[in-house]
Amino acid sequence: MEITAALSFALVAGLVMTSPGPKWVLIAKTVPTSGKNAGFANLGGYIASLYIHGLLSAFGLSVILVQSAQAFFIVKMLGAAYLIWIGTKALWSAKDTSSASNDIQPAKNRRGLRRAFQEGFLTSLLSPKVSLFYLAVFPQFIDQKEDAVSAAFILLTIHAVLNLIWFSTMIILLSRLTIVAQGSGFQRWLKVITGIVFIGFGIKLAALTRAGT
Predict the structure, then answer these.
(1) Which among 58, 82, 152, 178 has the fewest CB atoms less than 10 Å away?
(2) Which residues of 146-166 are buried (b: 16+ CB within 10 A; e: fewer)?
(3) Cα 59–151–22 angle (5° rounding)?
(4) Does the pLDDT value for residue 184 go beyond 90?
(5) Given this model, what pLDDT does residue 187 score?
(6) Are the CB atoms for 32 and 106 separated by under 8 Å?
(7) Does the pLDDT at position 92 exceed 60?
């Protein structure tokens, strides 16, 4: 693959990556309440899902999601239901937080790393928009003379590294706010905002069509 194609893809992927989405909100909720390691577990799950989406796209299997209205609808609704479920849980948790008399100490209320990984993994895996992105972008940067799977893997790795750098920086910065985040007031409002945003993303995903967002 030519370096110009790789750099061009990195620019496009970087612009998409820096647009706020569910993964942003998930990490912003996880780090203050469960710690830096849980945030990196979120990120690990998200990156793992990227490779699944990317390799399915490279092998053409995710084309089914584009060509089959029924398959696309099922995956879309599963993803929407999952996002709405996370949002509802956050709102319910905020209700519990508001009724507590003492500040919550995140260090004593950590979600397990496995759970954090699963949340990051499923938040991305159940979004057909990721496969649609790869299906739309990969052909723009893969030469017909190249092996499509190998070239797609290179582009996928570039995307994964960009996400690793960007969100690792975000996690580290958020972890610096630990003292502020220990207050129950901060956590309550964070959970309320998280819940509303995730439910909003779920509704938006449910309205997604195969032609676009």
Answers:
(1) 178
(2) eebeebbebbbebbbebbeee
(3) 70
(4) no
(5) 61
(6) yes
(7) yes
Residue pair 109/38 in contact by the 8 Å Cβ criterion: no
Read off the pLDDT of residues 121-130 as tens digits, 9 standing for 90 and up: 998 888 777 8
pLDDT of 102 strictly over 60: no
Q: Return the HEC string of the chain.
A: CCHHHHHHHHHHHHHHHCCCCHHHHHHHHHHHHHCHHHHHHHHHHHHHHHHHHHHHHHHCCCHHHHHCHHHHHHHHHHHHHHHHHHHHHHHHHHHHHHCCCCCCCHHHCCCCHHHHHHHHHHHHHCCHHHHHHHHHHHHHHCCCCCCHHHHHHHHHHHHHHHHHHHHHHHHHHHHCCHHHHCCHHHHHHHHHHHHHHHHHHHHHHHCCECCEC
pLDDT exceeds cutoff 80 at 65: no
